Amino acid sequence: MKKHFLIIILTSVFYINSFSQNDDKANVLAVERSMAAAYGKHDVVTLNNVYADDVSIIATSGNMINKQQLFKMVQTSNGVTLSDMSVKVGGNVAVVTGISVITGVDNGPYSNKLRFTDVFERVNNQWKITSSQQTSVAQ
Predict the structure, then answer these.
(1) What's the CATH fold of domain 2-136?
(2) Could you read off the pLDDT of 3-46 as tens digits, one per residue?
(3) Are residues 129 and 103 in contact, defined by beta-carbon separation less than 8 angstroms?
């Protein structure tokens, strides 16, 4: 009887953990999508909530930019389209990889296809981007 009870308990813990991780993945993807939508609206308030204050961003040029520099870049954006996203969650850290296409106008219209990696950390029960890196992809 004890053996069956132990198996039931362990199985329950496995399923709860599995559902919790699926919820975390869905929540991280929701934050990623809200960030993409905010670019097209020039919604700095949402972006301020999505990115950690001390975020490290490696631009396609290889230069490091901070949150304030990112907000200036957002002003030229018309929108961001995301695809091929994958999420890995481990405790309070999540990593999202995918492809984004950023369109906008800055000295003429542009469209940049990028492969990205965003690192999230759960802070006060909210997922925040703490690090981001983009690499240009041939279109």
Answers:
(1) Nuclear Transport Factor 2; Chain: A, (3.10.450)
(2) 554 444 444 444 444 445 579 999 999 999 999 999 889 999 99
(3) no
